[in-house]
Amino acid sequence: MHAIEKILARASGKKEVRAGEIIQAKVDFAEVNDLYLQSIKSFYEMKGTKVWDPNKIAFILDHYAPAPSIQSAANQKSMREFVKEQGIKYLFDINAGVCHQVMVEEGIVWPGMILIATDSHTTTHGAFGALGTGVGATDLATIMLTGELWFKVPDVIKIEINGKLQTGVMAKDVVLHILSELGTDVAVYKAIEYTGSTVRDMSISERMVLCNMAVEMGAKTSYIIPDEKTIEYVKSRADYEFDILETDEDYKYSAEYIFNVDNLEPQVALPHSVDNGVDIQKTLEIKVDQVFIGTCTGGRLEDLEIAAEIIGDNKIHKDIRLVVIPASKEVLEKSIEKGYIMTLVKAGATITSPGCGPCLGTHQGLLAPGEVCATTSSRNFPGRMGSTEADIYLVSPATAAAIAINGKITDPRYYIKNAKVENK
Ligand SMILES: CC(C)[C@H](C(=O)O)[C@@H](O)C(=O)O
Ligand code: SF4
């Protein structure tokens, strides 16, 4: 069995499960964000009165934080009331940050667990060897009622990434490149395991970027075998007992892909699909109106660090708006302490409070018709960040920072000491 199958077997009380099998499994933790008031309504429609375990549920107000409309304020109010009524242990209110980052920082993610949330990017937690996946409101309500959920055991695809990333090339570039090669449906209802020397060399934050964007390939969940870095991180955050379930040597992956990233260039995903990634040198000179640095795939401490380093004493370009949103309160605090926020503010950035911001087009920096945005977020569908007539380019935090200074798509390596870049 694959480690993911072992996680599912253990949670369903079976000795063995096989890909394609439908099983009923115990969930370790459920998480609801502020777009899913329906999960509370469904809970009551299913005749729920008391949640299965108030210590294993979190409500997170992140997508509309702070509330930009009366409707979202009312939804958040209802959620706070439900949390109180039910004695639910975790309420991460509008000051906390993006759910996927907050859960990890709060020590609610550990190897071998099953974490289900009302958000597709819950695949992020594969970076910790956890089985994370997103569901809709009724499935989540079922978990709140029973602590269990049905699963179809997924096939697993192996993506092996080898090589040493060039200076200025980040995990976002790697995953955009993989998406451009494999497309957006390569892993529909499958799991993606990332492996290889590049993945092993990556920090926890970088691994989270890979796993987060597994869902952009259609993946149900993702996985990276936990190593010392993972264990050290998880232990520094939580005191849960966990063990690491290993994939059997004779496990057969449903497909295997191998990438070498030694010579990978910074990538840019052109509008309007995440798999439109190309080498940045093919896109130079495209004029940009807004740069967004933030989200669950581009707003971590390391991301703000590289952005601040690249921007340094420069000012942002006169025709650019730079919106920066730390992924969590912790990231905000640390980036204040380390001076990144001061650098960014002095350069002309607009900083808003931790949360999803304009990533899914709800507030804090929407785009007008005809505008162009370069963003560290994960999706560039038409209308994703405002007008359907705006163009969204997906880039790494390093690239976003270079664009903010230069006003057009720019290779970040121009601004990084000792980075090599061949002009084409
Ligand atoms: C909750 C939801 C609208 C959503 C998701 O499921 O991923 C959002 O976070 C996104 O990134 O599109
Ligand atoms: S930051 Fe963007 S991708 Fe992440 S959970 Fe929020 S809306 Fe979804």
UniProtKB/TrEMBL annotation:
InterPro entries: Acnase/IPM_dHydase_lsu_aba_1/3, Acoase/IPM_deHydtase_lsu_aba, Aconitase_4Fe-4S_BS, Aconitase_4Fe-4S_dom, HAcnase/IPMdehydase_lsu_prok, Homoacnase/IPMdehydase_lsu, IPM_dehydratase_rel_enz, IPMI_cat. Binds 1 [4Fe-4S] cluster per subunit. Pathway: Amino-acid biosynthesis; L-leucine biosynthesis; L-leucine from 3-methyl-2-oxobutanoate: step 2/4. Its cofactor is [4Fe-4S] cluster. Gene3D superfamilies: Aconitase, domain 3. It catalyses: (2R,3S)-3-isopropylmalate = (2S)-2-isopropylmalate. SUPFAM superfamilies: Aconitase iron-sulfur domain. Coiled coil: none annotated. It holds the Pfam family Aconitase. Keywords: 4Fe-4S, Amino-acid biosynthesis, Branched-chain amino acid biosynthesis, Iron, Iron-sulfur, Leucine biosynthesis, Lyase, Metal-binding. Its EC number is 4.2.1.33. CDD domains: IPMI. One of its GO terms (biological process) is L-leucine biosynthetic process. [4Fe-4S] cluster binds at residues 296, 356, 359. Residues 28-283, 284-407 form the Aconitase/3-isopropylmalate dehydratase large subunit alpha/beta/alpha domain. The keyword Iron-sulfur applies. One of its GO terms (molecular function) is 3-isopropylmalate dehydratase activity. Belongs to the aconitase/IPM isomerase family. LeuC type 2 subfamily. Heterodimer of LeuC and LeuD. Catalyzes the isomerization between 2-isopropylmalate and 3-isopropylmalate, via the formation of 2-isopropylmaleate. This is 3-isopropylmalate dehydratase large subunit. The lineage of its organism: Bacteria, Bacillati, Bacillota, Clostridia, Peptostreptococcales. The gene is leuC.
